[in-house]
Amino acid sequence: MNRFEAAERALRTAAPHELLDAVRAVLVERYGAKEVELFMADYGLAVLQPVSELPHTLDPVSVHNSPAGRAFGSQEPYCEDLRTGARLHLPVSVRGDRLGVLSVTLPDRDAARDCASELAQIADVLGHEVVVAERDTDLYLQARRKGRLTLAAEMQWQLLPGRSCSRPEYDLGAQLEPAYAIFGDNFDWSATADRLMLYVTNGMGEGIEASLLTNLAINALRNARRAGISIADQAALADQAVYAHYQGRCYLSVLMFDFDLATGRASVVDAGSPQLLRMRDGVVERITFDAQLPLGMFEETDYVAQDFQAEPGDRLVFVSDGVHAVASPKGEAYGEAALARAIQSTRLLPAAEVPRAILRELTGHRGEALPADDALIVCLDWRGRPLGH
Question: Are 108 and 225 contained in the same domain?
Answer without folding.
Answer: no
